[in-house]
Amino acid sequence: MSTTAQDTVPRIELTRKGFITNYPPYRYWRPETAQRLLDPKPLNIYVHTPYCVQRCAYCHYKTTTLNENRKAEIDRYVQSLCTEIQLASKRFHLKERPTHSIYFGGGTPTLLSKENLSRIMDCLREHLTFADPEITVEGEPVTLIQAKADHLKSLGVNRISLGIQSLADEIILKTGRRDTEKHAFKAIEIAKGTGAVVNVDLMSGLAGETDATWAYTVERALAADVHSLTVYKTELYANTEYYAGIKKNTLELPSDDEELKYAAYAIEQIEAKGYLPVNFFTFTQGGGHMQRHTTSKWRGDDIYAFGVSAFGSIGSFSVQNISDLEKYSSTLEAGELPIARGYHLNAKDLMARDVVLGMKLIHLDRKAFRQRYGLDLVRLCEPMVNALVEEGFITVSDERLSLTRKGILWGDYTGRQLAAAVDAVAS
Ligand SMILES: C[S@@+](CC[C@H](N)C(=O)[O-])C[C@H]1O[C@@H](n2cnc3c(N)ncnc32)[C@H](O)[C@@H]1O
Ligand code: SF4
């Protein structure tokens, strides 16, 4: 005999008793949960500098070069940043929250004058509450001179991230940058001398790369003995010189297979030297020197982003500032916040975001996911999890889902597949 839909629907006893005042009922409510509400939530800060020495051939970021003297323009931008910090702090009560990390990104923040760096930092100190924050500054080697590094140290900067990309001079030359291996090593020594944690960015798959040039870059980067090494896959974007060169048939990039081979080689060499992955593109000595800002970002913690085109996320909102420099400043001069657009993540979006960004941190905590959403991720999208295990991208334990070496190499593939499965199940 076959079962009908009626057989499977539980019978509901008809009763007028049991008035519902709350869900879930009081018996589940705890004092420690109330305390969690009262505790101020940690805050992370991003500050954008849109200026660069040059426009690198591969770079897609919204930046502008400094060909002529633009001191007045930069001073105006820094004034706008300070106004934004003041307005946002008041509007969103940012001073009530402990600031755990500050990230000066770009562009090239090390291009800012000592005076302007001090002005921004003074403003942050006045309108935020510093809780012994990790303070990172991104920089290009040619811009990190000793006096600038000493100044960064005096401002409390404790992490310096240098864009090196390649240590083979002939490859760097093709990107339009003015750095050389010599500049890079000088900058690394200066950065280390400040006592800060030093990260070096490399890019696998730059134009002209060969097995020999890449092996040289990796070998020299390891010889630099920095705390942290980041290997980005070169991504091709329409707003770059690389893209224009490919369209005109004047430039060729390494194929996807070659790029994958370079990335695999770098990971093998880096791990052999005792570096461990802390996310799928950054490796730190012994897995230490955790990067608080990036880790917070991939965990979906709050990041307030200041500056032109800067994007951040507060609660379940993602927001981005105005992308036009003139409009950014004039909006602030009129006393308004320069937020241009936003997205409100619904419950399903938040779940998918936790998966796609969380997977970047190599391990995704099943318990944390269950606590947040009341669902077990593995049971929620079992066929996809099984397929990813079978194809060798992840391993699964009771505690977590972890990327394998293959998963690390394929970047966001795993996160994207899992997030799509979460999205499909929850639809
Ligand atoms: C915003 S830049 C800041 C660093 C600094 N401006 C410099 O270039 O020295 C941060 C990093 O993004 C990476 N990057 C830029 N364009 C990229 C692309 N098209 N694909 C992959 N990584 C890229 C580079 O490794 C760069 O060091
Ligand atoms: S890679 Fe760095 S220096 Fe080059 S254009 Fe991009 S942000 Fe500027």
TrEMBL record:
Parts of the chain that traverse the membrane: none
Gene Ontology molecular function: 4 iron, 4 sulfur cluster binding; coproporphyrinogen oxidase activity
Protein name: Coproporphyrinogen III oxidase
Source lineage: Bacteria, Pseudomonadati, Myxococcota, Myxococcia, Myxococcales
SMART domains in alphabetical order: Elp3
PROSITE patterns (UniProt xref): RADICAL_SAM (PS51918)
Record's GO cellular component terms: cytoplasm
Recorded family membership: Belongs to the anaerobic coproporphyrinogen-III oxidase family. HemW subfamily.
Any Gene Ontology biological process: porphyrin-containing compound biosynthetic process
Entry superkingdom: Bacteria
Residue ranges annotated for the Radical SAM core domain, each copy included: 37-277
Originating organism: Stigmatella aurantiaca (strain DW4/3-1)
SUPFAM superfamilies: Radical SAM enzymes (SSF102114)
